[in-house]
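User: Just a sanity check before I run the rest of the batch. Below are the C-alpha cells for the first item. I only need the designed sequence back.
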C-alpha cells in the first residue's frame, strides 16, 4: 500500500499505552507504510506584542517507523480556530444544537487561517503517491487549501461527528462554502447511514450535485465518493486490557463493594451532546417508580473534563452537579448513595474492569457520531454473565447495535423503564443479546474501518477511470 499520511487536530504517539484504540489502529497502518501524522502540538505560543501572533514551527519527531509532525498555535489562532469555530460553531451545529452556536465572524477567519497554515506546512512533506487521510471537523477545508497550492494527491476525509439534516446545516452562515470544501476530497466518510443520507440530500438540493454512481456525487467540477464507514474499536486490544492487572483489580474491588447492589455505569466526556442530565433524570425516575431499586441500584458516572474554556461546558457541569446532589440528597441513605459522580478522567487500563463489573451501561447521548463507549462496554463483558447495554437511538452506534435496549433519551419515563428491564433481564436473554452484539463489533472493528476507508481512497483513480469508460 502507498504511504499513509494522517492529519488531525491532535496527534498521539501510537506506541504509548494511554493512546486509545483509534491511535493504535492508525498507528499500525502508519507504522507499516512508514507514514506521517500531522497535527497541532497542543501548545500555544504567545505572539509578539502589537503584531499578528507568530505561527508555531513544525516539529518533526520519529515514533518508531512513524513520523510525527506537530505545530504550535498562536493564542489568537487557538482561540478562533479551536475554541471558536470548531467548538462553538461546528460542534454544536453538527450535534443539532443551533441554540448553543456562536456565529462570530472572527472564528471563521481563524479557522481558515489555521487550515491554510496546516496546508502550507504539510505540502512540502508529501510525496506524489501518498494517501492523505484528514480527520474531523477541525480540518474540513484542508483539502481545498492543499488543492489551491497545487496538490494532486488522493485525499480522504472522515467526519467523526454527525452531519445534521440539510435544514439544520443551512442555518450555518457559510454552509455553502463548507460543504463545497468537501468536494476537494476524493473520499468523504461518515459514521452512519443517516449522516450519509443528510449529505446526499443536502448536496442535491443546495449544490445541484449529480449522482453519477453508487455513493458518487459530482459538483463544482469534482467527483467525490461519500458514504458511511462506521468506526469500530480494537476488540481484541480492549478484551486484553480487561484481563490486565489494573482492570482485574478494579473489577474485583467493584464486585466486592457492590456484591449486594446493582451497579450501573456511565462513561463520557462531560459534553452536552452526551445527554448526562437526561440520563440522571431517568435514573431518578427509576428510583421514584420502582421502589425495589432504592438502596440497590447505584450509578457510577465518570464525566471526564473537556473543553472547559467554552461556556456551554461550564453550564452543563453545573447542571449535572446540581442534579446529582439533589438525587443523592433525596434518596441517599447512610450506607447507600444512588449516584457516584466523578469529574475526572479514569486511567484507560481501569475502564474495562469498571465496564465488566457493571450490570448495566447507560450510553444515552442526545446525538453522537458513533460512541465508542457502547462498543467498549460490550467488549469488556464476560460472555457467560454479560451486562446489558442501554443505548440511545440517537448514537450512530444504534444503527449497528440493534440488540442493545434502544431508548429515546428525551423520554425520561421510557428510559427508566428500559433501565428497569435491563436490571431484571434473565441470564439467557443477556447472553443472546451480548453474543449478537459482540459479533457485530468484531465484524466491523477498527481494523475493518481503516482498511475499508483506505481501500476506497487507494482505488479512487480506478473508480474515476471506470466512470469515464
Ligand atoms: C468522537 C465522537 C465517535 C471516556 N472517558 C474516559 C475515557 N474515555 C474514552 C472512552 C472512548 C473515548 O474516550 C470516547 O469516545 P466516544 O466515541 O464515546 O466519544 P467522543 O470523545 O465524543 O468521540 C464519537 C468518536 O469521536 C470516534 O470516531 O465515536 O461519536 O463524538 O474510547 O473509553 N478514557 C479514559 N478515561 C476516561 O475517564 N482513559
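Assistant: Here's the designed sequence for the first item:
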Amino acid at each position: 500500500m502507498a504511504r499513509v499520511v494522517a492529519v488531525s487536530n491532535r496527534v498521539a504517539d501510537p506506541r504509548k499505552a494511554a493512546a486509545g484504540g483509534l491511535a493504535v489502529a492508525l498507528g499500525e497502518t502508519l507504522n507499516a507504510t512508514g507514514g506521517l501524522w500531522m497535527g497541532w502540538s497542543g501548545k500555544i505560543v504567545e505572539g509578539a506584542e502589537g503584531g499578528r501572533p507568530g505561527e508555531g514551527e513544525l516539529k518533526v519527531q520519529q515514533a518508531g517507523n512513524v513520523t510525527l509532525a506537530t505545530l504550535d498555535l498562536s493564542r489568537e489562532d487557538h482561540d478562533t480556530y479551536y475554541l471558536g469555530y470548531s467548538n462553538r460553531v461546528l460542534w454544536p451545529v453538527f450535534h443539532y444544537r443551533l441554540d448553543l452556536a456562536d456565529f462570530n465572524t472572527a472564528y471563521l477567519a481563524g479557522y481558515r487561517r489555521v487550515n491554510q497554515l496546516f496546508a502550507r506546512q504539510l505540502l512540502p512533506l508529501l510525496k506524489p503517491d501518498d494517501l492523505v487521510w484528514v480527520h474531523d471537523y477541525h480540518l474540513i477545508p484542508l483539502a481545498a487549501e492543499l488543492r489551491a497550492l497545487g496538490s494532486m494527491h488522493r485525499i480522504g476525509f472522515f467526519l467523526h461527528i454527525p452531519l445534521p439534516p440539510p435544514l439544520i446545516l443551512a442555518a450555518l452562515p457559510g454552509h455553502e462554502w463548507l460543504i463545497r470544501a468537501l468536494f476537494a476530497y476524493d473520499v468523504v466518510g461518515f459514521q452512519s447511514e443517516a449522516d450519509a443520507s443528510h449529505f446526499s440530500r443536502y448536496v442535491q438540493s443546495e449544490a445541484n450535485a449529480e449522482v453519477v454512481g453508487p455513493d458518487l456525487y459530482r459538483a463544482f467540477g469534482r467527483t467525490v465518493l461519500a458514504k458511511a464507514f462506521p468506526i469500530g474499536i480494537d476488540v481484541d486490544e480492549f478484551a486484553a486490557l480487561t484481563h490486565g492487572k489494573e482492570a482485574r483489580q478494579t473489577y474485583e474491588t467493584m464486585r466486592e463493594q457492590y456484591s449486594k447492589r446493582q451497579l450501573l455505569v456511565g462513561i463520557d466526556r462531560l459534553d452536552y451532546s452526551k445527554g448526562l442530565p437526561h440520563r440522571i433524570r431517568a435514573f431518578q425516575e427509576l428510583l421514584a417508580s420502582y421502589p425495589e431499586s432504592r438502596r440497590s441500584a447505584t450509578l457510577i458516572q465518570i464525566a471526564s473534563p473537556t473543553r472547559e474554556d467554552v461556556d456551554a461546558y461550564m453550564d452543563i457541569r453545573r447542571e449535572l452537579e446540581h442534579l446529582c446532589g439533589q438525587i443523592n440528597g433525596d434518596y441517599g441513605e447512610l450506607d447507600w448513595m444512588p449516584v457516584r459522580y466523578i469529574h475526572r478522567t479514569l486511567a484507560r487500563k481501569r475502564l474495562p474492569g469498571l465496564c465488566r463489573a457493571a450490570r448495566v451501561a447507560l450510553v444515552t447521548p442526545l446525538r453522537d457520531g458513533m460512541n465508542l463507549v457502547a462498543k467498549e462496554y460490550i467488549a469488556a463483558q464476560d460472555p457467560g454473565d454479560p451486562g446489558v447495554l442501554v443505548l440511545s437511538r440517537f448514537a450512530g452506534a444504534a444503527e449497528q447495535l440493534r440488540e442493545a435496549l434502544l431508548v429515546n433519551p428525551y423520554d425520561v419515563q421510557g428510559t427508566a423503564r428500559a433501565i428497569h428491564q435491563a436490571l431484571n433481564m434473565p441470564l439467557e436473554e443477556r447472553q443472546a443479546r451480548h453474543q449478537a452484539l459482540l459479533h457485530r463489533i468484531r465484524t466491523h472493528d477498527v481494523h475493518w474501518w481503516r482498511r475499508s476507508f483506505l481501500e476506497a481512497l487507494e482505488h479512487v483513480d480506478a473508480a474515476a477511470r471506470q466512470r469515464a469508460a
